[in-house]
Amino acid sequence: MAHDFRDAVFDSVFQIVSKNPRTIILTNDMGAMGLSQIQESYPRQVLNVGISEQNMMSVAAGLALSGYVVFVYGIASHITTRCYEQLKLDVCALKVPVILLGMGPGLSYGVDGPTHHATHDCALLQTLSGMTIYLPADGVAIKAMVELAYQGGTPAYIRIDKDPYESVYAPNEHDFSLGLETIQQGESLCVVTNGIMLARVREAARELLEEGIEVAIVDLYRMNPCNESRLWEACARAQAIVTVEEHGRTGGIGSLVGRLLSERGHAIPFRGLSLGDEMLFGSASRPWAYGQCGLEKESLKNTFRQMALLPITV
Amino acid sequence: MNVQALEYKAAELRLHILRTALKAGKGHVPPAFSWVEIGVALFYGGHLNLRSDDPTWENRDRFILSKGHGCLTLYTMLADLGFFPKTELDNFCGPGSLLAGHPDTHIPGVEGISGSLGHGLGVSAGLALGAKLHSCPWKVVTVMGDGECQEGSVWEAAMFASHHQLHNLVAIIDRNGLGATNYTENNVALEPFVNKWEAFGWEVLSINGHSFEELGKALGCFRQRQSLKPLMILAQTMKGKGVSFMETSVDWHHRIPKGEEVEEALRQLMGAISSSGSAVTMEMAHGS
């Protein structure tokens, strides 16, 4: 059954706002049903600052310095790139509790054109000192990440997909402070993925099982800081590794896993599947863009199959 | 402090600022000089509630220097007031020094990072909103540059502050008329500046930013203001004030004096101290 990420995130934020009057949500004129419900119950704790992302981040920092925990809700591409310097200097350098709720990451808003594509958001934000980056795959994960970000008291970014999600985790099943989870074991290949791509990878892996190909799947739901020792533990015994992400080629989990393997001198077959680094002009719907970049199910299966059957060349 | 004591302090600080920059061979001296009286009025004139022995005291007023390149004035004041040892000034811009060419929050008494312009007013507005929502007694004061107002983020913050009636926010613009390489009116004109701020919903006071009488009058009222508008003090100043060949010159943004310029600058600044100091001595002699 499919669920809405926004409902999950605002259910969690509602709980926090109801308990802590020094919590406030800022938005750059972006709406959501869950946000309206919070506003109805706690009107002093929701503030539409207008279409002014730079000022929104500076104000968020100021509010945080005055004792607030601040959630900032807006379209992912707009609240990351438009105000990057404010995030760097006012939020991250001051290490204040400002939690970005980035609506519509990757190509969630693909058909709306390149202004709305958030395909390098993680690349940019991971260079900011102290910015924790979460890429939840379902509602259980997002609830835990909102709570972790709130308790953390430092800057965080949570990607909130616009498309519905399928449940991956049972409530209270997993400790999300660990940074990643091997959600299924497999001997043939290890796939590292996260966010909305996790469901697609699982579906491809299910079908490959009928061919006798066992795919291990790692949900790397916290990109920054990456739990490298746990990631290494998950990858070390794999015969081949593929990363799958709805993000640009540069600065995503492909870069991260590739660097990890390189630094550890682990010479095994590796392949990074992602969107390209080129800007996608026109209406880049997910099915169309996935077809272009080898991210649709059959392409995923082909790549997984190919990598699983490669001879080890160490 | 009375006006003569403030004038003496301003003259003394200018000399410290120049000596600090000369020792480092770096620093923005003229942009520091233009807001010396503003800084002295705030920090020594009793207009900011701060504790040098407890810089993060909960009920302190929040001061943000948005024009970070003018930090030498802030550094010398904070050192003089005991926020950190004066010896730190000797290592300004040195390897691993506490004091870089633009301020950051590792420095006791510094509330925000600045240097890239257009940040201070927005952060100050957030602080002021937080204080207002919870009826905190403290005020927020920010000093901005005039060239900085060519940043769009300044006007986003200006709209925000008036919309939310942040009457606990005071912004002071050091209107020295110059950017880094040219007069603001030659780059992108700011005038009519008063009208712009008024149109954005601020109460605006236009004063002489080197006059302690006018600064005292403008700052003296801000805690008892009835207006719901944020307060803008447009302080007309002179970049490089105190050293004749630097004053209002497009050549002096971050240039450091050399050779005879050093001797002449020091002579003028020491002369100012001497005249201010004499006045204080005479005043003391008369028992007031």
Secondary structure topology:
The complex is a heterodimer of chains A (314) and B (288).
Chain A: E1 2-3, H1 5-19, E2 23-27, H2 33-41, E3 46-48, H3 53-65, E4 69-75, H4 84-92, E5 98-103, H5 121-125, E6 132-134, H6 139-152, E7 156-160, E8 165-166, E9 181-184, E10 189-193, H7 197-209, E11 215-219, E12 222-224, H8 228-235, E13 241-244, H9 253-263, E14 270-273, H10 286-293, H11 297-308
Parallel strand pairs in A: 2-3, 2-4, 4-5, 5-7, 6-7, 10-11, 10-13, 13-14
Antiparallel strand pairs in A: 1-8, 6-12, 9-11
Helix pairs in contact in A: 1-2, 1-6, 3-4, 7-11
Chain B: H1 3-24, H2 29-33, H3 36-44, E1 62-65, H4 71-81, H5 120-133, E2 140-145, H6 152-163, E3 169-175, H7 184-187, H8 193-199, E4 203-208, H9 212-220, E5 231-236, H10 260-285
Parallel strand pairs in B: 1-2, 2-3, 3-5, 4-5
Task: Describe this protein's structure.
The complex is a heterodimer of chains A (314) and B (288). The mean pLDDT of chain A is 95. In chain A, helix 7 links the parallel strand 10 and strand 11. Helices cover 37% and strands 18% of the residues of chain A. Chain A is built from 11 helices and 14 strands. Chain A is of the alpha/beta class and 314 residues long. Chain A has a 7-stranded mixed beta sheet with strand order 3-2-4-5-7-6-12, with helices on both faces. Chain B is an alpha/beta fold and 288 residues long. Chain B contains 10 helices and 5 strands, in the order αααβααβαβααβαβα. Chain B is globular, with a radius of gyration of 18 Å. Chains A and B meet through helix 3 and helix 4 of A and helix 5 and helix 6 of B.
In short:
The complex is a heterodimer of chains A (314) and B (288). With 314 residues, chain A is of the alpha/beta class.
